[in-house]
């Protein structure tokens, strides 16, 4: 089982399942054996990341490191984390890891279209408060737009509604905030929480805006990592000359 990718998930379980589905959907495979080898760790006892960062709740770090090493011991050679807010601890986890890791932030920002000027960010309160995306976006000379106060509260309520299984409520809360960011000038929207793509589903076409799905971006980056590793071990083709003897 070469070049296995480990998913450090459970934040939340639906986002982890969405990532697994995207690994299957995005991989151009014609049979089982051509799909990406993946080990998923979806243990949902990891403390709430936002509660830790914003209100002094218990830290998720020890859990994250424990499950990271669990994936390493299981054979993962590259680890991805389908949670944007958890990337507050990414550098520390990367330093503790003995295998490669791919950042969801870098993967997402690599998909910004060349012509975009103003980027809207839909994310948790903690992702916004810690500036995980802001500095990287502004370094690119782009305008960053985020919902204000009550609108951001609605984004958080939508995320927790989705976690609670109420998709209709989540959409009713989130869609006006998307429309607001677009009306404010956003030409590209980053779905900077891995629950957001699950809320929006296939309804991106109703909005006059380009969307970047952070989960999808991370999966594509992981598939590129895997294919790069595969190309390193693929031996060159050998062509045998044949001749006939009269």
Automatic annotation (TrEMBL):
Keyword presence, Translocase: no
Keywords: Isomerase
TM region positions: none
Protein origin, superkingdom: Bacteria
EC main group: isomerase
Isomerase listed as a keyword: yes
Any GO MF annotation of the entry: aspartate racemase activity
EC number: 5.1.1.13
InterPro entries, sorted: Asp/Glu/hydantoin_racemase, Asp/Glu_race, Asp/Glu_racemase_AS_2, Asp_race
Pfam families linked: Asp_Glu_race (PF01177)
PANTHER family associated with the record: ASPARTATE-GLUTAMATE RACEMASE FAMILY, GLUTAMATE RACEMASE
Similarity annotation: Belongs to the aspartate/glutamate racemases family.
Stated name of the protein: Aspartate racemase
Annotated source species: Serratia fonticola
């Amino acid at each position: 089982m070469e070049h296995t990718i480990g998913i450090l998930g459970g934040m939340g379980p639906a986002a982890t399942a969405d990532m697994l589905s995207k690994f299957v959907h995005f991989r151009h495979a014609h049979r089982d054996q051509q799909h990406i080898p993946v080990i998923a760790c979806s243990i949902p006892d990891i403390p709430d990341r936002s509660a830790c960062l914003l209100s002094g709740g218990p830290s998720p770090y020890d859990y994250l490191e424990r499950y990271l090493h669990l994936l390493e011991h299981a054979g993962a050679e590259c680890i991805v984390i389908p949670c944007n807010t958890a990337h507050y601890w990414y550098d520390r986890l990367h330093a503790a890891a003995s295998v490669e890791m791919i950042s969801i932030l870098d993967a997402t920002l690599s998909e910004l279209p060349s012509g975009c000027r103003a980027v809207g960010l839909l994310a948790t309160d903690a992702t916004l408060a810690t500036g995980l995306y802001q500095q990287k976006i502004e370094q690119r000379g782009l305008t960053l737009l985020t919902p204000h106060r009550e609108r951001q509260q609605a984004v958080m309520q939508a995320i927790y509604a989705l976690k609670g299984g109420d998709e209709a409520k989540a959409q009713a809360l989130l869609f006006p905030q998307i429309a607001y960011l677009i009306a404010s000038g956003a030409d590209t929207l980053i779905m900077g929480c891995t629950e957001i793509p699950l809320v929006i589903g296939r309804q991106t076409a109703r909005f006059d805006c380009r969307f970047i799905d952070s989960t999808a971006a991370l999966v594509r980056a992981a598939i590129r990592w895997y294919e790069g590793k595969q190309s390193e071990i693929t031996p060159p083709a050998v062509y045998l000359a044949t001749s006939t003897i009269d």
